[in-house]
Amino acid sequence: MALVAAAVREDGLETWPVAIAMTGGHGELFWQMFDAGLVPIADLESVPTAILASRVSSPAIYGSGAEALIAARGFGEAAPLLPDARLFPHLTDIASLPARPLYGRGADAKPMAAQAGSS
Fold first, then answer.
1. pTM, to two decimals
2. Domain 2-94+103-113 belongs in CATH node 3.30.420
3. Where are the domains of the chain?
4. Is the terminal CB of the chain with fewer CB neighbours within 10 Å at N or C?
């Protein structure tokens, strides 16, 4: 997500903050807002596209999910930017990220013990 925000800043495309939406699974979009320093100002979330359309009012949306979000809400400009690893040096805050997986939504699978107890 931050690499897409870095691409927005590199291209001089927007006033800040910016909304980034990336295609997810299950009809959802991953999304996050960033300030001009490329620092997230909201937690990463995975949200159904229709619900996100009612929550995000930014005039422009960036990322692989931008077109789907703009189509769902009926207004705005989509810029389907993708992450660009060449912009990694611009992410000054990256060293502070914890070394653990980051999930935008809960697991779909349930442990076998939980399934047996629910029958």
1. 0.77
2. yes
3. 2-94+103-113
4. C
